[in-house]
Amino acid sequence: MRDWLQRQWFERRRLSPALWLLLPLNGLFVLGAWLKRRLARPQRLPVPVVVVGNITVGGAGKTPLTLWLACQLAEAGRRPGIVSRGYGGQSDAPRAVDRGARPETVGDEPLLLARRAACPVWIGRDRAAAARALLAAHPDIDVILCDDGLQHYRLARDVELAVFDGRGAGNGWRLPLGPLREPLARLRSVDAVVCNGEPDPRLPRSTPRFAMKLQPGRFWRLDDPASTCPAGELRGQRLYALAGIGDPGRFFRTLEGLGLDCTTRPFPDHHAYTPADLAFAADGVLLMTEKDAVKCAGLTAGETWVLPVEAGLSPALIELVLEKIRGRKAA
């Protein structure tokens, strides 16, 4: 059902007649979203808050952008901390995420952030509470990055960045008729739109827009992260690839662009893998994303390589962010 809905949302530019029966649910969703925002009582933190999110369901590149922002802020002399919902984890109360945490406890994306970012990462259903807990544990932090928090209006924010991938706004309808959590008009109030792929022509031109390109690095081996190799060393082997991200096709296209011919297997975003899921690659070499890797360690005895990516963006984006948060006093 989920895959069918994704096809109806993103492979069509108009509402499919097959979805008309969901119109009443769409009305309830729109009403609920309006009430949620209307009744929210934003909580202001003593440090600036930069929210990275999207108005569509599924991943669009928020985590690589958050990592890029954390690095750029640190290079600019700021001391960032990261908060996230911890989607897919079992913890609702605020807690720190360390590199050795289990993904089923803290979520796959927060664990990836904790392993890649040189700053503290905390999770919690209430992002304002998670941020306050982070600041209490790390009083030197002077800016908070909120990963995937655009619709979490309990947390007041100083900067909003909305991310889109190449699928854009799909059919342009809100859930469950389409992929939108909020209408496209919401983008007029964000500080910038970041496009991870070809921009949707329907995005408002009045909002600053930045292109983001995910640059693949060297593969590293799942059972020995210190062992790395370039894509060229994998060519000519029997290759398999899996991806459980918002748009698995994006990862498969990246591999194709590296000259790698793979048998591919897409999985739902945040999929909880089992050894049976990986068995299709038993007679060859398996390739996966870093997000999948945090959940697949120990599940396969075969040769498995992980492809890291780095976000590439114009320095003008971090200049915009710094300008927006300049003047706020840290705790």
Structural class: alpha/beta
Question: The CATH topology of the largest domain, please?
Answer: Rossmann fold
Strand portion, in percent? Answer: 15-25%
For the record, give the distance between the C-alpha atoms at the N and C termini, rounded to a whole number: 48 Å
Number of self-contained structural domains: 2
* Oligomer category: single chain
Which sheet architecture does the biggest sheet show?
8 strands, mixed
CATH architecture of the largest domain: 3-Layer(aba) Sandwich
CATH class of the largest domain: Alpha Beta
| H and E string | HHEHEEHHEHEEEEEEEEHEHEHEEH
Record field, number of beta strands: 16
Rg result: 20 Å
Q: In which range does the helix fraction lie? A: 25-40%
Low-confidence stretches: none
Shape, per Cα inertia axes = globular
Mean pLDDT score: 93
Strand order of the largest sheet: 3-4-2-5-1-6-7-8
CATH homologous superfamily name of the largest domain? P-loop containing nucleotide triphosphate hydrolases
| DSSP helical segment count | 10
Q: Secondary structure elements and their pairing?
A:
Blueprint: H1 2-10, H2 23-39, E1 49-53, H3 62-75, E2 80-84, E3 95-96, H4 103-106, H5 108-116, E4 121-123, H6 127-137, E5 143-147, E6 159-165, E7 192-196, E8 209-211, E9 213-216, E10 219-221, E11 224-229, E12 239-243, H7 248-257, E13 262-266, H8 275-278, E14 285-289, H9 290-296, E15 304-307, E16 309-312, H10 315-325
Parallel strand pairs: 1-5, 1-6, 2-4, 2-5, 6-7, 7-8, 12-13, 12-14, 14-15
Antiparallel strand pairs: 3-4, 9-16, 10-11, 10-15
Helix pairs in contact: 5-9
